[in-house]
Design goal:
Blueprint lengths: L1 E8 L4 H8 L9 H21 L5 E8 L3 E8 L20 H8 L2 E6 L3 E8 L29
Antiparallel strand pairs: 1-2, 2-3, 3-5, 4-5
Helix pairs in contact: 1-2, 2-3
Length: 151
């Protein structure tokens, strides 16, 4: 098992630092899961850098188990209801949650002393567990739950 907690500043370089923090997982993940998870982490940290209050710290949490990779980005600020639209051709921003929704197996948003945007990536040896929400089967990206890294 691998666990990571990384505190990042509200700074434009933080998405790259967060993405590279997952480099140590490359040997333990199938290539597609490694690539998808790094892109999603980069998008979530970018959103946090844009939307977190000035001077705020952003926390990246990751946990790799035998059946999944769980990732969360935690930031101070008010809860929000995610809105995912289809970006228009040529649109330069607004792709973040659209990408998260299409690349993660499950994801959601929780308000708990700030905002936690979490996502999960199934490892190929483990099909999605029965009863777990699948991509596209969420109410605004908030169905499902995030219990941190409790076993």
């Amino acid at each position: 098992m691998f666990e990571l907690t990384l505190t990042l500043p509200k700074d434009p370089i933080s998405p790259g630092k967060a993405r590279h923090a997952l480099d140590g997982l490359d040997d333990g993940l199938p290539q597609d899961v490694a690539e998808r998870s790094k892109l999603v982490v980069s998008e979530l940290v970018t959103n946090a850098v844009i939307h977190a209050p000035r001077g705020a710290d952003i926390r990246l949490e990751a946990r790799l188990s035998m059946d999944e990779l769980r990732v969360a980005v935690v930031q101070p600020g008010p809860m929000f209801e995610p809105v995912i639209g289809d970006p228009r051709p040529g649109q330069e921003s607004g792709w973040g949650l659209h990408l998260v929704s299409n690349l993660a197996d499950r994801w959601g948003v929780i308000g708990n002393e700030g905002v936690t945007v979490w996502c999960e990536f199934d490892l190929p040896a483990s099909p999605p567990a029965e009863g777990r929400p699948e991509n596209g089967r969420r109410s605004g990206g908030s169905q499902g739950s995030w219990s941190g890294f409790a076993a």
